[in-house]
Amino acid sequence: VTLTKVEIPVLGATEQAYVDAFANAVSPATRMIVFSHITYKTGARLPVKRICQEVAVPNGIPTLIDGAHAIGMIELDFHDMDCDFYAGSGHKWQCGPGATGILYVRDNLGRLRDYWSDRAEVFWPINSSLAEYPFFGLQLQLQYVGNDNYPAKRALADACDMWDEIGRDRIEAYVLSLSAYCKQLIRQAFGESTVIYSPDAPGLSSGLTAFNPFDDRTDAELLKQFRDRLREEYGFVVRTTDFHVTLDGPEEHALRISTHLFHDERDVEGVVAAMYSLFSDMTS
Length: 284
Ligand SMILES: Cc1ncc(COP(=O)(O)O)c(C=O)c1O
Fold this sequence. Notes:
alpha/beta; Aspartate Aminotransferase, domain 1; globular
């Protein structure tokens, strides 16, 4: 297996640039396209539907999408996006129990059998307790992995019902509005030229805001110190992430702020004010 990394734009990204990055990377030898719907590093939201419909499907390539952060944050329609596999966490934005998640498999692998018709078998559910019993059907095979934690799965289904009741479109709109507000306040406090790695454009933004207020954005220790003091002195818990803006560029670091359904505008105002106060203290 040869793994080809796709370099996606970080700063100044456009929907077309993401689509082009994948279109330019595939070849007749490509067996699968794997990518995050929302990257955990910067919170960029990739145009999944266009990548599937304009790059994957016309070239007969199956897609496996990591939607760890998308489940529960944005409204999703797997049939509409036309992916083959979609995996996501139950315990992040969906607020379900730990160690739960979802896996969408398109049409019981029907299309995978077409795409990989050069192989007699296309799928081995190796961690399933029912791997040897295909007559149970794929869904049961994939769900039966040792002794089941049935209450946790039930609780995840209940959390999903609650999200449906509130309305996933309303949840998405709310989370995105808080995230846009967060980016706006960061620019107001730290200046227009502050580097916010997360896109702030319709369709490309998410509930994650990654930015670095310091001049030297390669200084990991400085940012960790900032993150720890923000937690200890102000009570705000954020994490740091690291990434390369270009594949051969230096590693850069960002603070990553999540604006969740259970936050409100005062929380956003609070975290930005706290970050600005701490930043002023550390740079004075
Ligand atoms: C993009 C991405 N994929 C996968 C995972 C792992 O998710 P889980 O904790 O559900 O195994 C994470 C967790 O942070 C993530 O950010």
